[in-house]
Amino acid sequence: MTLEFNQIHRNDHLPGRIAAEIAREINDSKLGPGDRLPTEHVLAKTFGVSRSVIREAIAQLRNEGFVETRQGVGAFVTDPRQRLSIRIERSRLNDPENFRDLFQLRMPLEIEAAGLAALHRSPQQLARLAAALEKMKTADDWSTEGVAADLDFHRILAEATQNEYFLMFLGFIAERISSAINIAFSRAVFGEILEVTIAEHVAIYEAVEKADAPAAKSAMRKHLIGAASRVNLELDIF
């Protein structure tokens, strides 16, 4: 069966737009329960984006219940009768209070995830974290490649907890707040925000590499407080 995707424009939120295109094919029954999605390589070539953008789009589909992923095999369409998902419309996050509430939920989850990742990460996951960090450092376009690498870093960290629920919830939250990350970069002095953001991620990586859970949690807390300030959020932090 031939899949027909609409053209993706560069000013779109790429992962969300790609996820919407794949979801449309599923809703139109062009992809049915049990069908495997095309590979990351094929989808990346089809949409003209990097594989990290495709991974983010598939993570969104998984969080919304459209697909399930099987490590080393691929992503498969779920039966609509068995779909369980969390749904928060992106438009609701235009309300500053709703956005702040979601960010507050993110903080304790991701801080704990960093500590667990330091204790349970595999050598392969550590290598993938290093690769995502390197992509952040070398990205030519932070509106797409850099933000995708940033989100990939956090997704791998959640995966490294070896607890699928951290991956599920944090993946959902990260996808919803990614547009605000783009806004932060567009409004700030690029060099300054980039340098600080990368330094915060380096600190997290080094703590995870050393299997130092308290240091990983502390580094993640510092990063999230910084990230909140970069999107002008006032959080009740104790």
Automatic annotation (TrEMBL):
Q: InterPro entries attached here?
A: GntR_C (IPR011711), TF_FadR/GntR_C (IPR008920), Tscrpt_reg_HTH_GntR (IPR000524), WH-like_DNA-bd_sf (IPR036388), WH_DNA-bd_sf (IPR036390)
Keywords assigned by UniProt?
DNA-binding, Transcription, Transcription regulation
Q: Name one GO molecular function term.
A: DNA binding
Which Pfam families does this entry report, sorted A to Z?
FCD (PF07729), GntR (PF00392)
HTH gntR-type domain: residues covered = 12-80
Q: Is DNA-binding set as a keyword in this record?
A: yes
Superkingdom assignment: Bacteria
Entries under Gene3D superfamilies matching the protein: GntR ligand-binding domain-like (1.20.120.530), Winged helix-like DNA-binding domain superfamily/Winged helix DNA-binding domain (1.10.10.10)
* Protein name per the record: Transcriptional regulator
What phylogenetic lineage does the species belong to? Bacteria, Pseudomonadati, Pseudomonadota, Alphaproteobacteria, Hyphomicrobiales
